[in-house]
Amino acid sequence: MRGKIIFLAGLAAALGAGWAGFPYAIYTSRPQPVDFSHKVHADKAGAKCEDCHAFRDDGTFAGIPTLDKCAGCHAAAMGTTAAEENFIDQYVTPQREPPWASYARQPENVFFSHAAHVKLGNVKCESCHGALGASDKLPRYRQDRISGYSRLGMSMTDCIACHRQQARADSCLDCHK
Fold this sequence. Notes:
This protein has 177 residues and is mainly α. The protein is built from eight helices and two strands. The chain has a two-stranded antiparallel sheet with strand order 1-2. The longest helix is centred in the N-terminal third of the chain and has 25 residues, at 2-26. The protein is extended, with a radius of gyration of 21 Å. The termini are far apart. The mean pLDDT is 86.
């Protein structure tokens, strides 16, 4: 009987350690290159999501803004924060693009159109991206070591749940190539 208790206790400890340790083993984590505040840009500068995260002329989504979009306002410091000073010194002055990590890189076999959702479906950015636009700090980038995708990106389950909530009947081939 004592052997079974020791075995079960060891099994429970091993399962618990695996359950707690697995996310640390499978994900690598790093901060974004710039300590960026969406809140400061929205509140103080009056910026909207589409001011920086715009659509191209062909309707595709441009994604993360390029340095020239930032440098238009930040050629010189507008505030007194160390983060802005660091951004100007490391990226704006030498005209070097920050190596942003994308939270929303899609698999090769998936097609997602921001234009169809935002322009045609009137879906608000917050519906998928949450309160990121009101945040003072970007979340750490956590990348799955096996797939290479971000842990913070949207999953197919999220998309299906939203489409069902909106009573959308779609085919797999609407999104998958």
